């Protein structure tokens, strides 16, 4: 059963092949404090962007794989920013997969919900002036969320993954997986990194971006 009774129109497994414009780079070891993962590379020949997959254990076969589709966040993932929950979610996903002994994280280079790093800084400056994350995106001429998940299925096919138990709080991501033909059998709630600096950000994600949290402080 999906947590919080999120309706999923589960798609059957389909035969697919790696997209012809997606180059696969075989894995190397990625030792971490929690486990020794494997780090795979992908290059989208259409735009030159480089993406990653972080895997642990045997992720092939019919048993759904614990997974996270994580969009790059330099400020949160590498610079420890508390404006968002991204870095904490990435770390928590790696810890959960290590505990389970099997799983995959796709690390997609879609900084700032797809608007890019410099534009994210511009959006942050607008937020410093009182806008929320959605208002700031709109003020810069972007939509709520500019991310594209078209590479998820071919990346998973290359890795031998057939279905996911997806760590996410975002129903829009679940719908995007359905539209991309990625079978998701379960939504696994994935809350991490709440702090005083991002309470308003998380409240906006719940109110305007449909994110599901066990509790969200009212603004």
UniProtKB/TrEMBL annotation:
Point out the gene that encodes the protein.
ribA
- Could you say which residues bind Zn(2+) here? 73, 84, 86
Q: Cross-referenced PANTHER family, in alphabetical order?
A: 3,4-DIHYDROXY-2-BUTANONE 4-PHOSPHATE SYNTHASE, GTP CYCLOHYDROLASE II-RELATED
* Function, as annotated: Catalyzes the conversion of GTP to 2,5-diamino-6-ribosylamino-4(3H)-pyrimidinone 5'-phosphate (DARP), formate and pyrophosphate.
Q: Which domain of life is it from?
A: Bacteria
Q: Which residues form a coiled coil?
A: none
Q: Where is the active site?
A: 145 (proton acceptor), 147 (nucleophile)
Any one Gene Ontology biological process term?
A: riboflavin biosynthetic process
Known catalysed reaction(s)? GTP + 4 H2O = 2,5-diamino-6-hydroxy-4-(5-phosphoribosylamino)-pyrimidine + formate + 2 phosphate + 3 H(+)
The identity of this protein, by name, is: GTP cyclohydrolase-2
- List the InterPro entries: GTP_cyclohydro_II (IPR032677), RibA (IPR000926), RibA-like_sf (IPR036144)
Q: What are the protein's GO molecular function terms?
A: 3,4-dihydroxy-2-butanone-4-phosphate synthase activity; GTP binding; GTP cyclohydrolase II activity; zinc ion binding
